[in-house]
Amino acid sequence: MADDVIRMYGAPWCTDCKRAKKFFGEHRVRYEFVDVDDDPVGLRIVEDANQGKRIIPTIFFPDGSRLVEPTDAELATKLGLQTRPACPYYDLVILGGGPAGLAAAVYGASEGLRTVIVERDAPGGQAGLSSRIENYLGFPSGLSGADLTRRAVTQAKRFGADILSQQAVGLQAEGPYRITTLQDGARLSSHVVLIATGVQWRKLNVPGADRLTGAGIYYGAGAFEAASCRDEDVYIIGGANSAGQAAMNFAGHARRVIMLVRGESLSDSMSRYLIDETARMPNIEVQYGVQMVEAHGADRLEAISIRCDKTGVVDKIPATSVFVFIGAQPGTDWLDGVVARDARGFILTGPDLFVNGARPKGWTLERDPALLETNLPGVFAVGDVRHGSVKRVASGVGEGSIAIQFV
Q1: pLDDT, tens digit (0-9, with 9 covering 90-100), for 265-300
Q2: What is the 3-state secondary structure (H, E, C) of the chain?
Q3: What is the pTM of this model?
């Protein structure tokens, strides 16, 4: 192995190892993985580093240091990512680093606003994990979500935007300022906050799913997951564009890719070009009118039960890798009582705030809320987290861009 490469010692079934792999993959960090279950020398290295204990992941860095079971924050600090704000005050704080947030950062910083993105994971959001986006304007051959993210991050930084590897946990108004509280207790003061936190995959509500999440059941998928499933049978749950893009990505590595779709067709949820592409792949199989009803296994996924909705018959089949792309949840519980949301948690903005023609309760300004503004003046919402938004990359980029004019 090369001496200038990060080495991670772990096991494929280890949840913390998967998380660290995901972190490195999203941040495009080169590393080598050593499976201690198959490598006695690697196991001995881990035990020597941990007083005889088998603790994974144990990660060695080229400077001779190591981290044992590190958190994402510890990894971010080690890699030199910005985890603390450069200054306590910004003109514009953007919560979320997906396409909408990155677009807002580019346009905001280019207009001279002191701008910071607060993003818990790597910039790019769900779109950043897409293996190929083929219907984005200006890229006739398509581009990967990672490539789009890299370009956008470079552009935003060139205009002077900061990107903070942190998570927002609180938001409040203090006079003319909007105060964002971060997970480590730091507070960011700004005139304007733009919420672009996107959505999260809805969890599988079936027996065994929670216990085996990270050990055979995964939500979303990037390039590194596909490469790790070489010659396997991979199951994908979902029938929208993200599921189709993942299926195409896995098809280049896995023996078979089986899509489990509750509906009777893909036409209502997937773009035509993706339907045609998946149909042309000989190792992609689509099963309609079925759903997974149970996950089986002790420490890692060993099998799944699938029910046919028409017949009610349940089949138990061997499976080691299931990737879930079902529904979307906005993850806005932390904003309860701060901004108005619909019954599903999506943030209400602009005209959607009016009830029987009346402005939202507590609104004291003489003007109406702006198109993308929440019921809290100076706080905007764009992209997938916003009620009524179109769940497409181009739409998120558009909303993030035009929001700056209201800012």
Answers
A1: 999 889 999 999 999 999 999 999 999 999 999 878
A2: CCCCCEEEEECCCCHHHHHHHHHHHHCCCCEEEEECCCCHHHHHHHHHHCCCCCCCCEEECCCCCEEECCCHHHHHHHCCCCCCCCCCEEEEEEECCCHHHHHHHHHHHHCCCCEEEEECCCCCHHHHCCCCECCCCCCCCCECHHHHHHHHHHHHHHCCCEEEECCEEEEEEECCEEEEEECCCCEEEEEEEEECCCCECCCCCCCCHHHHECCCEEECCCHHHHHCCCCCEEEEECCCHHHHHHHHHHHCCCCEEEEEECCCCCCCCCCHHHHHHHHHCCCEEEEECEEEEEEECCCCCCEEEEEECCCCCEEEEECCEEEECCCCECCCHHHCCCCCECCCCCECCHHHHCECCECCCCCCCCCCCCCCECCCCCEEECHHHECCCCCCHHHHHHHHHHHHHHC
A3: 0.84
